[in-house]
Amino acid sequence: KTKNIKRREARAYRLLGLAYEKLDMPGKALETYKEALTFHEKDVPLLLAAAELYHRTDLTDQSINLYNQALKIEPDNLIALSGQAENYIDMGFYSKARTYYDRFFELDPQAPAINRARYAYTFSKQRNYADALIHITMAKMEEPSQADYWLLSARAYKGLSMPKEALEDLEIAIFLEPNRTDLKIIKAMWLYQMAQYTSSLSSARELLKQEPENELALFTIFLNLQKLNQKEQSLQALQKIKELDKDSFANKVARHLLH
Fold this sequence. Notes:
Layout lengths: L1 H21 L3 H14 L4 H13 L3 H14 L4 H13 L3 H14 L5 H13 L3 H14 L4 H13 L3 H14 L4 H13 L3 H14 L4 H13 L3 H14 L4 H10 L1
Helix pairs in contact: 1-2, 1-3, 2-3, 3-4, 3-5, 4-5, 5-6, 6-7, 7-8, 7-9, 8-9, 9-10, 10-11, 11-12, 11-13, 12-13, 13-14, 14-15
């Protein structure tokens, strides 16, 4: 009976904390969780709620500590395993993150695509593009409408020196999210790196129609026109960057080159 009362009390605290979160009051939510954990330090749902909020508010050390406490009580808790993996990914400890995701996938081979994609990301960050491709392909098959999965796949192909496949996947990402300028500038830069200067120039100009003040697009135009021996036009692109007068690396380079 006492256990049931304590369980209900912990649940009430957790629901109050979640209510504060929904009201966009993370500070109050954390206060609630901290108070609750002084009385219910072994309540796993409470530990997980607090750990997740600490993670979202960039209080990573506290989040790691609480996930560790939860895992001591329930070593196979999937939420704790994936949450701890995400903490270590954010810290750049990709191999450490995979130790948690390895166990996570052992327990749940059919886990959501987002977890598989994050797992792939850890391989990609360590330039293990072969394993990154295996796992991001699994994520793409499960959720083919996610542009970021196709982008990660494209990066893996590029890392494996397979530029044709990389561009194909990047094109799909752009098709899925046609308004994303970051994808379009990546395409323009990759085409430039592949010495496809005319195609890269066309891509950069297309992006410039969408964002006339995009410095990266202007700088890519400059680079391509230089390669195409159109020096005067290339300097015009630099001049436009200079006129934008932004405090940016591209602006500093433009001013230096025009000096």
